[in-house]
Amino acid sequence: MQVVVNGQVEKLERPTDLSSLLQRLGYRGEAFAVALNGDFVPRADYGETRLNDGDALDIVAPVVGG
Q1: Contact predicate 1/53, CB 8 Å
Q2: What is the Cα–Cα distance from 51 to 30, expressed in whole angstroms?
Q3: Is the dihedral of CA 4, 26, 30, 47 positive or negative?
Q4: How far, in Å, CA of 7 to CA of 9, rounded?
Q5: Is the pLDDT of residue 65 over 90?
Q6: I need a labelling partner for 65 at 20 to 30 A (CA). Which of 13, 14, 18, 48 fits?
């Protein structure tokens, strides 16, 4: 199974939820937002949002410094 995260292919050995993938990728804390297939996902739904083969994720984090 694979998903696309910010334009990069991520291979997953098994189906997973959004929260688990974010932890695996090192996203922790509050300073980012996620869109799944173009739709914003509320933070409260990360653990319940199952990922499917071919899903596209956009993870946006603020940049400090300007």
Answers
A1: yes
A2: 21
A3: positive
A4: 7
A5: no
A6: 18
